Amino acid sequence: MSTGDNQHSAGRITGIKSALRVIPNFPKPGIMFQDITTLLLDPKAFKDTIDLFVERYKHEHISVIAGIEARGFIFGPSIALAIGAKFVPLRKPKKLPGEVISEKYILEYGSDCLEMHVGAVESGDRALIVDDLIATGGTLCAAMNLLERAGAVVVECACVIEVPELKGRERLKSHGKPLYVLVESQFVPSS
């Protein structure tokens, strides 16, 4: 990539970051919610987000984009269409009709589960997992386990935002998977 391309990418990333908003104390006190809805209201920043992911993955022979419910559904299908891959939704329990394969995982305050249709992924598929944000990495690790159990090779996880303080990147690294993120989380100073 040339210097001009790097400057162009940096400008797009700056635009994406400025289109995001932080909502303090949502959904509960002490949480700094990273809101992507303002990004979706900015057509240029939204397009730049998709384009940066497409540019990264268009020559990586990705055959599956797996989007994590629900915000992975916003970015994943557009990336899949642009690179010629199928889109596989990873859903919360009891949201998919028919036979599913599931993966339970532990959250900070309980547990959750991801499901996908049996047969949605084939052995040897090269998969990219997409979500809006990585915090602790628990959901992404569950998604990787689910896809790998079905025979896919997880190439990378891709998120718009990373909350580095929660060390999700380190958790993925311990599973041997790289992470690509466009921006780090923004924090509003407490008053």
UniProtKB/TrEMBL annotation:
<feature type="domain" description="Phosphoribosyltransferase">
    <location>
        <begin position="42"/>
        <end position="170"/>
    </location>
</feature>
<comment type="subunit">
    <text>Homodimer.</text>
</comment>
<dbReference type="GO" id="GO:0006166">
    <property type="term" value="P:purine ribonucleoside salvage"/>
</dbReference>
<dbReference type="Pfam" id="PF00156">
    <property type="entry name" value="Pribosyltran"/>
</dbReference>
<dbReference type="InterPro" id="IPR005764">
    <property type="entry name" value="Ade_phspho_trans"/>
</dbReference>
<dbReference type="InterPro" id="IPR029057">
    <property type="entry name" value="PRTase-like"/>
</dbReference>
<protein>
    <recommendedName>
        <fullName>adenine phosphoribosyltransferase</fullName>
        <ecNumber>2.4.2.7</ecNumber>
    </recommendedName>
</protein>
<comment type="similarity">
    <text>Belongs to the purine/pyrimidine phosphoribosyltransferase family.</text>
</comment>
<comment type="pathway">
    <text>Purine metabolism; AMP biosynthesis via salvage pathway; AMP from adenine: step 1/1.</text>
</comment>
<keyword id="KW-0808">Transferase</keyword>
<keyword id="KW-0328">Glycosyltransferase</keyword>
<dbReference type="GO" id="GO:0003999">
    <property type="term" value="F:adenine phosphoribosyltransferase activity"/>
</dbReference>
<dbReference type="GO" id="GO:0006168">
    <property type="term" value="P:adenine salvage"/>
</dbReference>
<dbReference type="InterPro" id="IPR000836">
    <property type="entry name" value="PRTase_dom"/>
</dbReference>
<dbReference type="InterPro" id="IPR050120">
    <property type="entry name" value="Adenine_PRTase"/>
</dbReference>
<dbReference type="GO" id="GO:0005829">
    <property type="term" value="C:cytosol"/>
</dbReference>
<keyword id="KW-0963">Cytoplasm</keyword>
<keyword id="KW-0660">Purine salvage</keyword>
